[in-house]
Structures are given as structure tokens and as C-alpha cells.
Model the fold of this input.
Amino acid sequence: MLWIFTQNQQSFVHVHEITVAGKKIEGMIAGSDTWVKTLGKYDSNDRAAEVLQDIVKTIEANQDATVTYRMPNQ
Done:
């Protein structure tokens, strides 16, 4: 189970899937069939991809637990 605290610190959401869409990271909220939430926006596509890789590493390090991730500001 993955919970994300969004970059703007306005939402704490249970995320089912995550994608990089240009400079944004978007998440499909659990129980929804559409991309409904921007989790963070960064200065470049490369930075967004780095953040996604950090999310993956966090999940891999905590495979047997619920994971909470805070989106970085930059």
C-alpha cells in the first residue's frame, strides 16, 4: 500500500499507480480508473524521473509495510 503526501502539502492520498507526465508526477488514486491527481511538478522531465526512481527505491526498501512518501519540493 502506497500513501503519498503531495508536493503542495494539500493532500495525502492512497495511490494505486504513478506515472511521469513531462515535468509532473501524476497518481491514479486507489479505486479510480483515471489519473486524477498531480502529486508533484518539477523543473525538468529528468528531475521528475529521478523522483519516481526514489519512490521505487522507497517501496523496495519497505516491501512488507505500508509506505508513506513525501514528494520533494524541488
About this structure: The chain has a mean pLDDT of 92. Strands lie at 2-5, 12-21, 24-29, 35-41, 67-70. The CA atoms of residues 28 and 53 lie 17 Å apart.
